[in-house]
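Sequence in, structure out.
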Amino acid sequence: MKHIVLSECYDQLVISDEISSHSITQQQADELEQIIKAHKLDERNIIWGRKTITFMNYVGYIGLSNVSIEILPKVSLSEDPVVSRKALLNMLKKSGQLNIKYSNVSFLNLLSENLFEIFGYLYVVLLEKELKKGLYFDYISSEGNLNVLKGSLQIKEHIQNISTNKRTRIYCRYEELQSNNKLNQIYKVTNELLLKKVRNINTLNKLKHCHSWFSQVDSQSFSLRDLDNVTLNRLNQRFEPSFLLAKTFLSNLSPDFKGGKNKLFSILFEMNKLFEAYISIVINQCTDHEVQIQHQEHKLLVKEATQRQIYSLKPDIVISNGETELVIDTKWKQIRSLYNRHGAKREDLFQLYAYVTRYKEASSAILLYPHNSFIEERPATILESWFLDGLPEKRIRMYSISLEDEKVTIDNLTNIIQENFVM
């Protein structure tokens, strides 16, 4: 099956019958539109041209009937998808969206595979680890005619037995420890899905071995509501990492546009949310100062008639050293040195203006972007700096940071914080 690798925001899919590395047919484009509608993706971030499609903000994997599309974040100055996959997986892990210890898997060997193969391998390794400790059994309520009393006797049904000459049978309602429970049913259907779609031999062998554990488990269909209603308890909590991946696989299936027999698949992440979550967590490793995430202490205005505060201010990050505050807002956007203001939007500057004026102890408010090859300056250096008219002690600044390697990201953030706390 053809596999296409795109860089989010930079590369375009071409709709054409002519075969190229980034082309899909009109039928495949129709399938892609089906996925977009089925999963209610933000169509403002999927730009349809006359014969082109560009993904903005979304990264991940899309499986169509006979082509797969991998969308990677543009975090590497090289064109090597391995670097981008590594950075993306690290961001997902750090932000809590991927619960996996890389030391438990052959992580470096995975990076040459596409994201679907990587997630499939991570899932089966996590599942295999817990199955070695034993399959999960749960008490399931059952009822029916038995030869001996078990559980509680059901009088009404038992009288019917007597009236129909089934006097030797006892109608009981009872609970029985079974492997055929919801959690195992989810694993079975996930295994069946992956066995049809993964290509990696090692993953397939592990899947077949895991699948054999569920021979007494029913194959079921699950709705999104069904998946959300499954909760883990202290007896099966150990399965949580693999369960979350299984839930991700099943919740991202959608029927194809021909009628639903075959299944299309997508697993996509919004980079603006992921970037914000990642920086919010990593920044605690960069400073000993107090760090507050999604700070909501201040409002912008007060209505005179009612004295009611309106317009909440909620910067992504506020850092305080006890005397001075630093406000940071993350922006997952492509900026370039050749653009005026490096491409910073006016509304973003107005937002930072509100922060730096309302936060009385803030000397700086920062717009933080991912670094890219179109930025001439080095990461963690000031791209733009302004002070407020009449208030030179109040500044708005722009920076970019490298995301290729977490150690470099931490160094970048540390330098930015130190530079803006210098009195």
